[in-house]
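Students often ask why we bother encoding 3D structure as a string. The short answer is that it lets us treat folding as translation between two languages. Here is a chain of 262 residues written in the first language.
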Amino acid sequence: MSVGKKIRIKRIINRKSGKTVIVPMDHGVSLGPIAGLEDMDKTVNMVIRGGANATIVHKGIVTSTNRSEDTDIGLIIHLSASTSLTPEPNRKVWVCDVEEALTLGADAVSVHVNVGSASESMMLEALGRTAKECNRWGMPLLAMMYPRGKDVDVNVDSIKLAARVGAELGADIIKCPYTGDAESFEGVVRGCPVPVVIAGGSKLSDEETLAMIEGAMKAGAAGLSMGRNAFQHENPERFVNVACRMVHDGLSAAEALDLLRG
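And here it is in the second language, the structure alphabet:
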């Protein structure tokens, strides 16, 4: 890893624990101004107060959002996109590049690849090209790797494959779905030579979300990248704080639930 990558990646990972809590807020392109993302200033500042290590946003939000808290937060700029209105929602196109992200102050960049979709080849080519650009500029790359497509069975093996593909093509951190239990997710982590964080997925109950975090951490995950379960929570600041304590301090799901409801 280049010096530039080493410096920047420390801005999105807790230096003491070596793990990270990332809150993606890139949903505005795919879903519009959904609940929790109408007022980006307010939500970003709540996430900062909660102690998250980084957020993921699109380039336009960087220039229109005022991170007004005294404590800053790592900035990951998302490079790929599609909307819910397209007949091909699994086809992600690149709407930003590494050099532009650098000019906006990014600490890292992220891309989304739907493995197994009809447009897989285009996205894999773009992933490889982006990894090359990241190496050139010293920019950490987070790859969101999801098994998708009508002929793809989303199971443990397909998640293992998706995670490994991202690492093989140059990503520094992999984000992928949780497999449902710690034992099977340990296989995903073991088979991936770079750190793996879990995706939050669709909105879950507090119990389900905290159990997922606990299982992922037991399996050796490097943390989590959780959007809707964080910014759509009734108390995003408290939820993010509890999630951080689970990831960085080893808090159990039961202890976390007590704090969340306390």
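Translate back mentally: The first helix runs from residue 3 to 9. Keep this in mind for the problem set.
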